[in-house]
Design goal:
Number of helices: 8
GO molecular function: inositol monophosphate 1-phosphatase activity; metal ion binding
Subunit structure: Homodimer. The rRNA transcription and antitermination complex (rrnTAC) consists of RNA polymerase (RNAP), NusA, NusB, NusE (rpsJ), NusG, SubB, ribosomal protein S4, DNA and precursor rRNA; S4 is more flexible than other subunits.
Number of strands: 15
Helix content: 25-40%
InterPro entries: IMPase (IPR033942), Inositol_monoP_metal-BS (IPR020583), Inositol_monophosphatase-like (IPR000760), Inositol_monophosphatase_CS (IPR020550), Inositol_monophosphatase_SuhB (IPR022337)
Structural class: alpha+beta
Distance between the termini: 38 Å
Strand order of the largest sheet: 4-3-5-6-7-8-9-10
Radius of gyration: 17 Å
Cofactor: Mg(2+)
CATH architecture of the largest domain: 2-Layer Sandwich
EC number: 3.1.3.25
Strand content: 25-35%
Shape: globular
CATH superfamily of the largest domain: Fructose-1,6-Bisphosphatase, subunit A, domain 1
Number of domains: 2
Length: about 260
């Protein structure tokens, strides 16, 4: 395992310990609203602090982009951190949330960790070296047709600008696929796509820290990731499509007619 990936794993597990302890006593947590339907708890902040401590101890000159504390430092090496992706699930005791850590070097994703502390599932990837769940090599699914595909997504819950476009896509895919699922952690949804549990995934308006690690997992598992035009602008736009190569293309074809100029 690459030293940077090993450090990210250590950081993710440290955060996972904090999250698991807090999950045993949810009623005592302090929770704040960042914005409509966007919650932050003391656990998010403690987990992020723990991650940063581990990373900066090993790499003190690296930059960090983290959900709760924003941008820190200036370096060609940047860690991208979501300390608790799926906070709403966590606060309700719904065990579908994750820690997401990615490394970006000169704008290119190079390492990724998505850790599910409730199941102790550790998804990792290094560019050019494959993706893994614990010690098992991951490959995207072999599903060839959308009609046989299980697709993951995320509902708009903060910004409803693209709600009509989203509902149009959802309505069509509901009729064209084997099923749609909305578990509530985009990082895990992408990890599941890498593992072949989902055949594809799409969502509007995500943040860089929601998708950076998961995107590399999908790519290193043999899948494709793009924005709604199939291009590589998904980290900037927040609009993402991922899947095995055949389902990826069919998802783009289904999504395209529903997009407004703003959604593109």
């Amino acid at each position: 395992m690459h030293p940077m990936l090993n450090t990210a794993v250590k950081a993710a597990r440290r955060a996972g310990q904090i999250i698991n302890r807090a999950s045993q006593n949810l009623d005592s947590l302090t929770v704040k609203h960042k914005s409509f339907n966007d919650f932050v708890s003391e656990v998010d902040q403690k987990a992020e602090d723990a991650i940063k401590e581990v990373l900066l101890e090993a790499y003190p000159k690296h930059a960090i982009l983290a959900e709760e504390s924003g941008m820190q430092g200036d370096s060609e090496f940047q860690w991208i951190i979501d300390p608790l992706d799926g906070t709403t699930n966590f606060l309700h005791g719904f065990p579908q949330y994750s820690v997401s850590i990615a490394m970006q070097h000169k704008g290119v994703l190079t390492h990724a960790v998505v850790y599910d502390p409730s199941r102790n599932d550790l998804f990792t990837a290094t560019r050019g070296a494959g993706a893994f769940l614990n010690d098992r090599r991951l490959r995207v699914s072999r599903c060839e047709y959308l009609k046989d595909a299980l697709i993951g997504t995320g509902f708009p819950f903060r910004d409803f600008t693209h709600l009509d476009a989203y509902l149009g896509i959802f309505r069509e895919l509901m009729q064209k696929t084997a099923g749609l699922r909305r578990p509530g952690s985009a990082a895990l949804d992408l990890a599941y796509t890498a593992a072949g549990r989902f055949d594809g995934f799409w969502e509007f308006d995500l943040n860089t820290w929601d998708i950076a690690a998961g995107a590399l997992l999908v790519q290193e598992a043999g899948g494709l990731v793009g924005d709604f035009q199939g291009d590589a602008n998904y980290l900037e736009s927040g609009n993402i499509v991922a899947g095995n190569p055949k389902v990826f293309v069919q998802l783009l074809q289904t999504i395209a007619p529903h997009l407004t100029a703003k959604a593109k």
